[in-house]
């Protein structure tokens, strides 16, 4: 049930209210990296899964049931592609060393109401520390370095976020590929990122598997991903994403490969049960899949990345961390085409991998060492920027009576 009915001591009133006879819920509309979505204080949200799902569908403008092909989401805050259909539920919990944010990601799709709770989003995660500061969730320094620990319930991954402000409270800004302009800089350090979804760096037990005649490496660092050489599909890894998405033969083969790979990886649903073929075919989140090629513009590797149902306009940071780690694995499909990546030593060291993608370059850092013939990865880091697009209250015009009552309950407790 709801942990607290008292809003945090910030400058924003985080409580539901009636306005013109319609119940409204406060949200932050955020951008994190190259993704956009909504962040909600979780204690406001019903604990009942069906009512929670109804609320999120209202917020993002997707069908409550059935299919709506071509839905433009004009009645909600979603924007069509998976990268702009994300909702984070966030709250604060006490730890032995202080406090941390706890986040749960809901991934929605424009054409149907099914919600995927299975993975985290590295891009949108960068919006969480800015949300916590803006909403007054945590007591943070008004100048200097601010570090916030974030635990994600979808994957169990713990991330340390780092932001910095000057003596006037202004954030240090950063520019990243795929985003116009400079915005508050967020550095994210994934702690113990290996096997959070499957329990293993190599979920199939092999560095390389052959599926449908295609060599793939199935790697789980931050997110489970299927990595194949672009050349094995007759591609270069430098194509425009629109050209790849319009290639029916390529998409059919790629889909067949990642579905079979997902089964071989023994991916599981949120309840711990193995995902069926049909569930993997419908999944909006796992496994991620990419094709890789040799770099052309000063990076270490080039990539075209799928989420998996749609092509990504740049490169997801969780996938970037996974691909960077794969570049360090001798014999992997990524390692075979990567250029100029430093070798792993016997002591932990930061190894940087620059990933060329349609929007530019994503620079990821993997902290790794070689031990007894195995690779040990302790952390993976990446830099993003974040932005408050809007904060305010969303009227729930079509909410059921049960949802309205559930949203009112924190006010009654």
Topology:
Elements: E1 17-19, E2 22-32, E3 35-41, H1 49-60, E4 86-95, E5 98-107, H2 122-125, H3 127-134, E6 144-152, E7 158-165, E8 173-174, E9 183-191, E10 209-211, E11 214-221, E12 223-229, H4 241-245, H5 248-264, H6 277-282, E13 288-293, E14 301-306, H7 317-327, H8 333-337, E15 349-357, E16 360-371, E17 374-395, H9 401-412
Parallel strand pairs: 3-4, 5-6, 12-13, 14-15
Antiparallel strand pairs: 1-2, 2-3, 2-17, 4-5, 6-7, 7-9, 8-9, 9-17, 10-11, 11-12, 13-14, 15-16, 16-17
Structure description:
The protein is α+β, with helices and mostly antiparallel strands. The protein has 2 domains: 17-191 and 387-412, Diaminopimelate Epimerase, Chain A, domain 1 (Roll); 209-365, Roll (Diaminopimelate Epimerase, Chain A, domain 1). 19% of the residues lie in helices and 34% in strands. It is built from 9 helices and 17 strands. It has helices at 49-60, 122-125, 127-134, 241-245, 248-264, 277-282, 317-327, 333-337, 401-412; strands at 17-19, 22-32, 35-41, 86-95, 98-107, 144-152, 158-165, 173-174, 183-191, 209-211, 214-221, 223-229, 288-293, 301-306, 349-357, 360-371, 374-395. It has an 8-stranded mixed beta barrel with strand order 2-3-4-5-6-7-9-17. A hairpin with an 8-residue loop joins strand 8 (173-174) and strand 9.
Q: What is the spatial order of strands in the main beta sheet?
A: 2-3-4-5-6-7-9-17
Q: In the residues, how many domains can be counted?
A: 2
Uncertain runs are 1-7
Share in β-strands: 25-35%
Distance between the termini: 11 Å
CATH architecture designation of the largest domain: Roll
- CATH C-level class of the largest domain is Alpha Beta
Q: What's the helix count?
A: 9
The string of secondary-structure elements, in order, is EEEHEEHHEEEEEEEHHHEEHHEEEH
**Overall residue-averaged pLDDT value:** 93
CATH topology of the largest domain: Diaminopimelate Epimerase, Chain A, domain 1
Helix and strand composition category = alpha+beta
Rg from C-alpha positions?
Answer: 21 Å
Which superfamily, in CATH terms, is the homologous superfamily of the largest domain? Answer: Diaminopimelate Epimerase, Chain A, domain 1
- Overall, the morphology is globular
The percentage helix is: 10-25%
